[in-house]
Amino acid sequence: MKKKVLFISSTGGHLEELLQLKPLFEKYDYHIITEKDDANISLKQEYGDKISFLPYGTRAKFFTYLFLYFYLCLKTVYFYFKIRPEVIVTTGTHTAGPMCILGKLLRSKIIYIETIANMNKKTATGRLIYPIADLFIVQWEEMLNIYPKAVYVGTIGDGSFLSLRDKKEPSPIVQNMVFVMLGTQNNSFHRLLEKIDELIEKKVIQEKVVVQAGYTKYESKHMKLFGLIAKSEIEKYQQRASYIITHGGAGSIMTSLALEKKVIAVPRKHKYEEHVNDHQQDIIEVFSKKGYIIGTNGVEDLENAIQQVKTFQPKKYEPNHQKMLQTIENFIMSH
After folding, report:
1. Does residue 295 sit within a domain?
2. Domain with 100 in it: what CATH number?
3. The whole model's pTM is what?
4. What residues form DSSP beta bridges with 264?
């Protein structure tokens, strides 16, 4: 009989990391739990009754968040007793915390993968789960300095989670087009689009510009914009792009690197209410220092970054994906 394994994470980059564990799913009696938003609802078509959703909330609206988090905790209890997992695997963040604590109390094994977005400091959920995790995995060797009992296996992901690869479709022809990605973060990032409009006017950007605007409401005569669409459609735009400008979301960066695209990343800023904190700057610094992307400190650096992009030769992103999968599989087999 297959072991019951629950894979759980928040939406966005955490979910992108979780889905890169897909080669493990069919080896177990698996179930996936994530937050429900417009970008994730298409996963129901792929996974059917193997996926469930928790309410999506942002800490930007504090009192609403408190109510939603209480409801999330109640649904967590319901899902736990419905699934009764022997092992819980999570890439974070706050959505997974209650499930890990409940699972530990009821003797489930906990596997926690600290996000690729951090290289030198703990996440809030990592700090909470580290003392109770049965296997705590970090993706950067530097993280062993702050999680000394963790296991370092390298970074996650070989792109096998990309829907285009699953379908074995031919790669779309690269066009003279820039693709802009604002992800699924539900705060506006209009400052970036305003800067891109300005650079189009100045003819710094001369290519066609297509924008995945997410929840950002913006009108432009220079750019084609759309909101939230299926991941497979986003991947097609990524593949067609000559280069990609993205917010500092780990998921947007990783999928672009998996498709071997040149990436310029611009952080959302907390002071402009574009995110609940400034962790996107940390994500960009991690990937930029490694030579994978052109990182910026803000929209004011975008013009200079675009001037660099044609001659930029990114370091190839080579995650240790098989070691990650094997480490998790070995642990599950032995417990």
Report:
1. yes
2. 3.40.50.2000
3. 0.85
4. 245, 294
